Structure formats: structure tokens, C-alpha cells
Amino acid sequence: MKVLIVGGGGREHAIACAVSKSPKVEKIYCAPGNAGIAEIAECVDIQVMDFEEIARFAKKIKADLVIVGPDDPLAAGIVDVLKGYGLKVFGPDGKAAILEGSKAFSKDLMKKYGIPTAAYEVFDDAEKATAYLEKAKYPIVLKADGLALGKGVLICNTKEEALDGVKEIMLDKKFGMAGNRMVIEEYMTGREVSVLTFCDGKTIKVMSSAQDHKRAGDGDTGLNTGGMGTFSPSPFYTAHIDEFCKKNIYKPTVEAMAKEGRPFKGVIFFGLMLTEDGPKVLEYNARFGDPEAQVVLPRMKNDIIDVMCACVDGTLGKIKLEFEDNAAVCVMLASSGYPGKYERGFVINGLESFKDKEDCFVFHSGTKKTGKGIVTNGGRVLGVTAKGDDLKKARSRAYEAVEWIDFENKYYRHDIGKAIDEA
Ligand code: AMP
Ligand code: GLY
What we know:
By secondary structure, the chain is an alpha+beta fold. It has helices at 10-20, 51-60, 71-75, 78-84, 94-101, 103-112, 126-134, 159-171, 239-259, 293-296, 304-313, 391-402; strands at 2-7, 27-32, 42-43, 65-68, 89-90, 120-123, 140-144, 153-156, 182-186, 191-200, 204-212, 215-217, 221-224, 229-232, 265-275, 278-285, 327-335, 360-364, 367-370, 373-376, 380-388, 410-411. It folds into four domains: 2-93, Rossmann fold (3-Layer(aba) Sandwich), CATH 3.40.50; 119-186, Dna Ligase, domain 1 (2-Layer Sandwich), CATH 3.30.1490; 191-318, D-amino Acid Aminotransferase, Chain A, domain 1, CATH 3.30.470.20; 327-422, Glycinamide Ribonucleotide Synthetase, Chain A, domain 4. It is 28% helix and 28% strand. Strands 10, 11, 14, 15, 16, 17, 18, 21 and 22 form a nine-stranded antiparallel beta sheet that branches. Strands 3-2-1-4-5 form a five-stranded parallel beta sheet, with helices on both faces. Strands 6-9-7-8 form a four-stranded antiparallel beta sheet, sandwiched between helices. Strand 19 (367-370) and strand 20 form a beta hairpin. Adenosine monophosphate binds at residues 118, 141, 150, 153, 155, 185-188, 192, 214, 271, 282-283.
């Protein structure tokens, strides 16, 4: 088979590594890819939002399967365009990707089908939102309706902060069009868990759980990022919680989407909060998480091509998902300054240390190959993942491997997986 992967981050590198293990695959292409992906795939300089060019390229190479990684092209309907060219595509179509693309849609869906989530109101108008905040309880959470690079969520401790937030989102349009509508919701407390699932429109299969670390600094301080590190599985996601979620969250979500005429085929990522009143949905994503994919996929035993084809073909019911009985930890190496301003173009040393290791992986997020060698080319640069018999062993191995890599302005959190000690 020939497989084309759309995207160029750590998630797509982790997907490409999984695809490369399939004996069915003879060649992998990636648009646009990055310096790490280029070691196992042929990268082509086509950007993820250039759907027509991606379709033409996929037809030219006679791709048997196209896998779409990131949220933006999914929400904008890349799957519909590629399918229009007669291509086989893994990922939700535009009608289904709205599950992530509109927070108002996903909240209304959960309310209609009784799926546990935070209480909320949707606003199209700043004045009404402001009036609502006068009588609200604090802290409170404001969310821009649309996609905002994972940054459209504001947690406001006081009324003043919330009023400023409404101004930023709805009037100053800090997140652009994503802020034309807004969700205001109840603030929840508890542990967060990321659960990735495969769906074929009617059946849903759950992968191993993970936990992300969204804030930039140690001790969960600083700005929200795309994710600074992950571990899998989450020791807090017990068999009992899994059973509850399958019955009350996962199955009802897939059935609700089908009933709404939006059957979901691809990955649904459930962002859950384990509250005192039970698990509740924080958010849905219509794709693999990044860096969740970097700890979940290396532990998956199945041939990913079999699973993805079953999702597209509607035969997921026949697949038994299996994961290794071990653990993985991923520490993101970033450029200091991220998620604010940072510099690019620093030479990365030490990547070769990973070549002969079976338990350590380095997934490229923001890198580029130049005449000087591989250089930093983004805020999040590399994801260093290690596997171990248990979470503690995986964590200490991951932090050992972090030391093998060296580049100017290297920054990372030192406390990825600290929660393991409380389990
Ligand atoms: P999201 O992009 O929806 O995942 O939100 C980003 C982060 O904001 C989440 O990972 C949570 O840490 C936090 N968050 C979102 N919604 C809530 C909520 N209702 N209560 C408390 N924290 C929240
Ligand atoms: N790591 C969170 C996300 O992918 O949205």
C-alpha cells in the first residue's frame, strides 16, 4: 500500500512510525512532514490547507489511504474534498469534524443526549454575555466557539477577568472568527484524562488512556500550550471509570452523531475531567492528541492500517484493540519563550543517540533539515518518549533521554508525570 499522511508535527511523526511498522505498507508520503518524518517517508512541500493540491498529489502517487492528522483541515472539510476525488481517507468529514470545530455544537449535542459535561450557555452577542456574567458564580470558563490553536479557553477567577475575556474574544476578536460565538461554562475541578478512541460511524473502540500537561511551566504554571508532555496509561483512569465512560459518554456520543446525520469516522479524543460527581466531558477533539499520540501509539499492538481501514469501511466491530502491558512518558522539548515569542534555526545535536534504542523515541514537532543539519523550526521542537515496565521507569528513562539532545534555548518541564507519585 501507498499511504499519504497530511500534517507535519509530532502527532504525524508518531502516526508515520506506526504506519511504517505495517507489513502492508510499501511507501509513506507526508505533506508537508518535517525533518524526522523525512527519515521514514517522502515529504512533499504541500501545506495542509491546500486541499486541491493534496488531492492531486494523492491521485498522482495512487495513494491507497490518506490519513489526516491536524484539526484545521478536518474542520474545513478536507475529507470531503479528497473523497470527491475517489480517495480513501481516514478522518471525519466536515459534518462530523464539527464535533471539535464548534464548541457550541458539541455542548448542545451533549445536552440533547444527556452526556455529562459542565453546565453552560451559548452567546452570539457580547452584551448578553456581559449581562450573564453579572449574576454568575466564579471561577467561570469562557470558550471561543471555533478552533483557536488550543488557546481559546479562558479560566476567569473574577467578574472583572471574565468581562475582559468577553471583550477579548467577542469584540477584539483575539481568536479571530472563532470568537463570533462563545460558550460560558461552569468551572469544574478534578483530574484530567485524555482518552483517544477509534470510530467507524457506529462502533467505538477505546485506546489506552493518557494525561497531558498543558501549562508551559513546572507545577502547572504559566500559559496554556499545545501540550508539554504526556504519560500513558493514566493510573487514575480505572476499569470502573472506563466502564462508566463507555456506557455514558463514548457510546452515546457516537450514537448521537449518527442520529444527527453526522456519522463520525476517525479518532474522537475525549478530554475528560474526573470530578467528584463522576467523569464529565471537557472537550471533544476530532483527531489524535498531540503529544498524546506520542505515548499511546508506541504502545499499540495492532497494525494501525488494519484499524484505520476498518474505521473507513465500517468494520471496526471486528477489531480487537490491544496495547502493551507497560507505560510510556513523553517530555516535549520546546524553544524557550514558547508559547509566546521564541527564536528558530538552532542546530539540534544528539538525535543519533535514539537510533539504536528500542525503548526510546524522538518525535519531531518543529524541525527542519538545512545545510547546517537539522534545526529548530517551531515552539514545540521534539517529543522525547520512553517506554518502561511501569510509569516510574518510563519517566526516569524519558528524562535520561532528554539529556541526549542539545540545542540552544532548549526548554522543557521537569515535572512531567509528577502525578504518578500520587497514584
Ligand atoms: P480545552 O481546549 O477545552 O481542552 O480547554 C483547555 C483547558 O482548559 C482544559 O484542558 C482544562 O484544563 C481547562 N478547562 C476547560 N474547560 C474547563 C472547565 N469547564 N472547568 C475547568 N477547567 C476547564
Ligand atoms: N494535547 C492536547 C491536544 O492535542 O489537543
